[in-house]
Fold this sequence. Notes:
This protein is α+β, with helices and mostly antiparallel strands. 44% of the residues lie in helices and 29% in strands.
Amino acid sequence: MWxxxxxxxxxAAPRLSVRLHMPWYMRWSxxxxxxxxxxxxxxxxYGSGLExxxxxxxxxxxxxxxxRERVGLLSAENANLKSLQVQYERxxxxxxxxxxxxxxQLKSLADENISLQEDLAFFQDLTAVRGKEGDLAVHRLKLxxxxxxxxxxxxxxxVQGGQRAREFTGSYQMVATIVNGGQRSTLLFPQDAxxxxxxxxxxxxxLRVEKSLQLPPGAELESVQVRIFEQGAREPxxxxxxxxx
Length: 245
């Protein structure tokens, strides 16, 4: 125990150091100005470095403001152009719709004109044969291709002259001259093995006739002969040829 006391308070005892106690706020009051100065020095060095590199903050801010103004102007101009584009698109749609409607009207007028011309020609043909009592004539005989391959359409106007003409009763046949495989042959319409089949006719003054002809595959039509028979007659009263137009 005595040894412990000597070690603690004797010559071998640990050294005692005395330090001046400073409050924390005094320490911070000394440290804060140093930190502020260090930050200011760093900021000044950063700005000096930018100026030495050719970068000026005030000029950059001014250019940034100008760029923002330019972006605003371009945005407004872009919105205006989009509005104009929508208006022009609507105008184009209206114009296209108007053009389509005009084209339809023109086509309708053209079809009506063709129909009137056909009616005029019809009445002219009808008037031309009125003075010949009982005569039978074929007018406006026409042969054209139809929409399907190998299909043709024949049109004709049958007219009987005279104001007191009796009713014509009879029939007609069509004899088509075709070329198939380099060989020319004939086909009878209506097609019947006996050859006695005929299209029936019954009219007094005039009759419009329209008939389709269907040829075998690969056959080409050259011409058609129309044969008109009176009822009970074996020989045709009238024959008339027409070529493909």
